[in-house]
Amino acid sequence: MEHLGGEAPSREQADVNGGIHRKTKFPQGVMVWLDACYDGITRPIIIEQGTINHQRYINDIFPIALKDGRKLMGDQFTFQQDSAPAHKDHHTQAWCKDHFWDFWQASRWPPNSPDFN
Q1: Do 61 and 90 share a domain, yes or no?
Q2: What letter would DSSP give residue 7?
Q3: Residue 58: half-sphere exposure toward Cβ, Cα within 13 Å
Q4: Which of 74, 101, 110, 113 is the most buried (most CB within 10 A)?
Q5: pLDDT digit of tens for each residue in the chain (117 aa)?
Q6: What InterPro entries has UniProt attached to this entry (predicted)?
Q7: pTM of the entire structure?
Q8: Residue 101's domain spans which residues?
Q9: Is residue 99 in a domain?
């Protein structure tokens, strides 16, 4: 069978061309972190390589979360996060307790609620 269209950049274009669209099994990704509240959002933090562990979360993200959170809402705000491993880590929980006026500890988060946040 002759292959007519070659590879295409999208499924739609492949259909038009009569070709195939190849999708990488594990495409390279990028992580974007930001806080959102009624008064606005923080600066986005772009993590282009690697994953987030508790140390990277504390060193690279929390300083911006704290500074921008204070800029948006003053000193007294409640910081909430989901149950990602870096968020639940005891080092992360201790940092939050020491630096945020208030935060929801991991034990307060509802179980199995990915859409809660």
Answers
A1: yes
A2: B
A3: 17
A4: 101
A5: 344 445 667 767 767 766 655 666 666 678 888 888 888 888 888 888 778 889 998 998 889 888 988 888 888 888 888 778 888 899 999 998 999 888 888 777 766 655 554
A6: RNaseH_sf
A7: 0.63
A8: 34-108
A9: yes
